[in-house]
Amino acid sequence: MRFWFDTEFIEDGRTIDLLSIGIVAEDGRTYYAEPLEADWSRASPWVQENVIPFMEGKRTPRKLIADQIKEFCGEKPVFWAYYADYDWVALCQLYGTMMDLPEGWPKYCRDVKQLADSIGNPIFKRLTGQTHHALDDALWVRDFHVFLEGK
Question: Does domain 2-149 have CATH number 3.30.420.10?
């Protein structure tokens, strides 16, 4: 099954600290979480202004988030994200190293932006949702991907 996801995070050029993750399953289910351990004090002014105000505030331990995502996605997920590199690292870090990913999971994420580039970057506007809210962005990634598949 395909899963589209997005993360919000703090990064400083050396580390990525997950602030939130949103996932949309091909069957329509959704998942959203914010890690308890995230160090919000390290957030840049941009993150403080554009991400934190839109977070929901219910924080969950990272280990529980990892377990919940494993159950949500199952044994052989296909992951898609938009500009996926940091999102994929943030997701993988929930499990430790990439070698610690759940059994049957890929060691890579597919990138909707790369797919868009390969077909000429058609325009697709956001119609609903809050930009920089991980679940709203994951829903947009899914919708954009479905749009691109029709091109």
Answer: yes
